[in-house]
């Protein structure tokens, strides 16, 4: 005997928002572990900070908006936003940077639009872009991979750097961090250095950026897990990766002096997290099958264009937000043919 | 056995739960003291009673006649006395009442005189249709559309394929399965007649592959009639909602029924297996449709099974006979767990469309507040009609009904797949049913207001005309009056002058 | 300089032609505004708006002589539809005219009817049948529920009854308003 709803169907599948969100978080664990391995424990501090702020902000806003707190706080969407943002910003970012980004994402990009399901833009990316345009310096200096660092950064000094700006030993963040491989590639191409030569520096690995290639591989592995569990569909990631590959491949063939190799672009920066975890956000993306292909292709193309010809080293966030704007239009023009439609 | 030619998008693999009700053979439900028969158990206009309270009726005697083109007759399921012709609660999601005829049975179960047809080939299509209509046969798959209409392709169509739907895709339901296992010959009798009446070039029997016993029974019955030509059995993969008419046609033939058309536009006519059996009984035995096989199953029915039940039998008696563990007045589901509806009340009769009574669902959908739609699109991938339920939901909820039509709301078959997969547990189908009935209501009101406008304008015109005529008459009367006055004056004048003349002449 | 001027002029010309063409080619054929208003009005013909029927009220609205909030049978939804059509702010229903009520139907109590024909003359849509000295009856499908027949009846034999849905006209409830806690046990 169970209480059931008044209207059919009386059967329900096991699909739940919370389960989907938890799967997404679960799938990010290997890549996060890789990030900790390469960039040290600062990554974990960032994630914990972002999670705390996001869940608190979510709870307060739900209260203010007089919505039930429990079902919404447990849906896991705020946690996903927080983690995505935390791994997207540099590990040694000062605490206020993380807090600002998360608050902006949850308050402005999510709840002011009506909360879960109503946000037209990907909240994590809105937070990220706000930080990027407001604090370009903090946002583009990354820790080098630990094997390249003079001294590895332990948990204690990472904590001091994030919350006090300097360690007991007198380090400040600037002295330990530098440019990312994507950034280096862009700057040095600007100085007319051949990409084939640039990648010989020890900042670069055999596929993309040193360390970054592994992070990308693990994000891709997590993404494949999500595909397998049918949390996401293949259309967005495949369309995005394929578009980036084709665009960079063609450019690499005809103008090798302005771009890294296709493999370099797929295995550097936020390509894989973008393809499998960010562009696949259902709320702000396209919902039709064809629309998802268009959406993914758009994100891929814009990302590559921004990387090569734009003003920023990476372009996932801008690409996703721009395509978010187009999502309703894409949906409108990619409606599937209904059964029996005569036109 | 031949292969299927197509598939439909979306759909679900659902746990069948059919074994529970297929362990025992079909049983006969005992005769109830009272049988309550709604006058409308079919799509179309309600039948019109031809008996009066106090009349004695025999089993199989017609008690209401078909009204108009889309309607069928109704018969007494057993012998007894008519004790009421009045409104009575009917098994409908609204819980409303409707006109019903109630018979108090006498327990004799005496048949009226039956007129079996020895050789159906001596009948014309028209005569067969007439018998099917007079026998009160409707589609027994659930919708209840009068079957005789689907035995008349019309002069503009030739029937390529007669499709017999034995998919029975909805979980728990097994009445067609058991019918095919036990009465395959009777079904084929009906199919032969249908093929003859429709002049169908080929006959396809479609059965889902989760019914191996029904498949072998039907194959055996087919094999025993070598004279049957162009008749084949197609085993279709088990997937919900394969049994939907449009979906089955897509699976079997690879073609789609046009959105604004009917299967006959593709040269296809489809009937349910149970309907075929009823047609066979009507022609070969002269028996009208007075009973059907009802699956009684569910978690609370330990000895679930299929029951041949007379129409009008109270559902509560059937549930009791099936030894259902339930409180009086406790809710149950009529139909399957995906498309049926919940009812409560013990006084509801079994009708022609009651294929399954379900007490207790295993993986029941919890009653919980839905979360907002996260536009995951799972509903769209599950939709067998390739609709966008997320958009339909959005517009239905906003009561933006014009938009729901743009997104083809009326192509929704209400199968419930979208609800089932929704991670936010939004009652999507409820929204679509709501929007559909609201639109139909608007349509009715629009028609009514158009009628009122017409009548008002006609009346205005009539009043004006009457006014004009009145004025005209008045004018004429005045004119006549004036004329007669003038005449009189003239006469008087003439008289006066005459007088004067006379005087002068004097 | 000159090329720029010529180019811009040409552009303006082409665009102008295009616009002109488009305005002719894609012209929206609409009903006259009075017809559109009349379509929205419920056609009850009750006269509560102080006009003798829906059409005259529609004409008055089109002429801008009266407000759009004088139709109680249409109620809020009609006011909203009129506001949308005429692109004005919707207003609450004018209480002078009456209040919004559920749809009603006139029923003549045939025991009391004396066959005076006064209601027949009052009915704006000819929905009452009957002759002098013979009992009258309302054609239910055609009654608009305007209540105009109540007043003239000398014996008060007409009652307004609420229209109840039957299984064929019943509507599924709006799920947003269904309380899930009322879910039943099965």
Automatic annotation (TrEMBL), chain A:
Membrane topology: Multi-pass membrane protein
Coiled coil (residue ranges): none
Xref: Pfam families: NQR2_RnfD_RnfE
Enzyme class: translocase
GO cellular component terms, semicolon-separated: plasma membrane
Keywords assigned: Cell inner membrane, Cell membrane, Electron transport, Flavoprotein, FMN, Membrane, Phosphoprotein, Translocase, Transmembrane, Transmembrane helix, Transport
Listed cofactors: FMN
Regions crossing the membrane: 21-39, 45-64, 71-89, 95-113, 125-145, 210-228, 235-255, 261-279, 291-310, 316-334
Residue positions, PTM FMN phosphoryl threonine: 180
EC number: 7.-.-.-
Subcellular localization: Cell inner membrane
Claim: Transport is one of the keywords in the record: yes
GO biological processes: electron transport chain; transmembrane transport
Highest taxon of source: Bacteria
NCBIfam families: PRK00816.1 (NF002011), rnfD (TIGR01946)
Subunit note: The complex is composed of six subunits: RnfA, RnfB, RnfC, RnfD, RnfE and RnfG.
Annotated family: Belongs to the NqrB/RnfD family.
Functional summary from the UniProt entry: Part of a membrane-bound complex that couples electron transfer with translocation of ions across the membrane.
Protein name in UniProt: Ion-translocating oxidoreductase complex subunit D
Species: Methylophaga sulfidovorans
UniProtKB/TrEMBL annotation, chain B:
Bias-annotated ranges (Basic and acidic residues): 443-474, 486-506
Residue positions binding [4Fe-4S] cluster 2: 383, 412, 415, 418
Principal cellular location given in the protein's record: membrane
Membrane topology: Peripheral membrane protein
Necessary cofactors: [4Fe-4S] cluster
Sorted UniProt keywords: 4Fe-4S, Cell inner membrane, Cell membrane, Electron transport, Iron, Iron-sulfur, Membrane, Metal-binding, Repeat, Translocase, Transport
The protein's enzyme class: translocase
Residues binding [4Fe-4S] cluster 1, per UniProt: 373, 376, 379, 422
Low complexity composition-biased segments: 1-14
GO cellular component: plasma membrane
GO molecular function, one term: electron transfer activity
Pfam short name (any one): Fer4_7
Residue span(s) of domain 4Fe-4S ferredoxin-type: 364-393, 401-432
Coiled coil: none
InterPro entries reported in the protein's UniProt record: 4Fe4S_Fe-S-bd, 4Fe4S_Fe_S_CS, Ion_transpt_RnfC/RsxC, Nuo51_FMN-bd, Nuo51_FMN-bd_sf, RnfC_N
GO biological process: electron transport chain
Region (Disordered) location: 1-28, 443-506
Similarity comment: Belongs to the 4Fe4S bacterial-type ferredoxin family. RnfC subfamily.
Function of the protein: Part of a membrane-bound complex that couples electron transfer with translocation of ions across the membrane.
PANTHER family for this protein: ION-TRANSLOCATING OXIDOREDUCTASE COMPLEX SUBUNIT C
NCBIfam families tied to this protein: PRK05035.1, rnfC
Protein name as catalogued: Ion-translocating oxidoreductase complex subunit C
TrEMBL record, chain C:
Residues that bind [4Fe-4S] cluster 1: 46, 49, 54, 71
Cofactor requirements of the protein: [4Fe-4S] cluster
Pfam families cross-referenced by the UniProt entry: Fer4_21, FeS
Quaternary structure and partners: The complex is composed of six subunits: RnfA, RnfB, RnfC, RnfD, RnfE and RnfG.
Purpose: Part of a membrane-bound complex that couples electron transfer with translocation of ions across the membrane.
Name of the coding gene: rnfB
Protein name according to UniProt: Ion-translocating oxidoreductase complex subunit B
Organism for this UniProt entry: Methylophaga sulfidovorans
Cell compartments where the protein resides: Cell inner membrane
Gene Ontology CC entries for this record: plasma membrane
Boundaries of every 4Fe-4S domain copy: 29-88
